[in-house]
């Protein structure tokens, strides 16, 4: 189903998350209200330890929130069985991590094809799609390189291609530029913006790199587990 531009892809209402550590509770999220819209790059910014990764994890269904409501594409992931949750995530959500998390034994084009192969697509079609995507990202001469032969920026491009190859409607990225120098980080964010943001897709990027703030359509500020400000 194609959604109209700016439809709501993620909605969080009064979301809390408490981690139990020994006999103490760490309250990482203290009542988060946040909407993430299709057709936009939303940045989630805030100091280290304020709950950014926790919020991404509950939105993506990797962690369960303690209280509050989250809907992703109008679904409440808490109502899914563990298997259905994994299937939903595999189909609808793409992830980009800080440290790329590529498989060292696979080439660039194979790494980016992994979500399609997991989804059961024939290998040749999966590789073909991955190749086209990587080529569109300026990686035509790196397709057959293994991660150890790629620069940080190139590895992150492969990781972004892997997050997009199955055409998910939500893409979440946790500090995708923090392991890169400023110039490379900015270029990665520009290409993420260019290639990932589509009318039917929302992109949510956690960053505390203020050099990329200018690229966001919306900037949500998180501090001590609460959204303090949203800049449009
Ligand atoms: N698995 C965990 N167990 C206990 N405490 C955690 C866990 N994950 C995160 N926290 C705590 O929750 C708070 C928010 O962490 P996090 O979401 O990683 O922040 P950020 O990504 O903004 O740096 C921190 O105080 C952190 O120590
Ligand atoms: Mg974090």
Features:
single chain, 232 residues, alpha/beta, Rossmann fold, 3-stranded antiparallel sheet, 9 strands, binds adenosine-5'-diphosphate, binds magnesium ion
Q: How large is the count of helical segments? A: 6
Order of helix and strand elements from N to C terminus: EEEHEHEHHHEHEEE
The CATH top-level class label: Alpha Beta
CATH fourth-tier homologous superfamily: P-loop containing nucleotide triphosphate hydrolases
Question: What's the structural domain tally?
Answer: 1
Named once each, the bound ligands are:
adenosine-5'-diphosphate, magnesium ion
Morphology? globular
The name of the CATH architecture is: 3-Layer(aba) Sandwich
Structural class: alpha/beta
**CATH level-3 fold name:** Rossmann fold
Poorly predicted ranges = none
- N/C terminus separation: 27 Å
Portion in beta strands: 25-35%
Radius of gyration: 17 Å
pLDDT averaged over residues: 91
Largest sheet: 6 strands, mixed
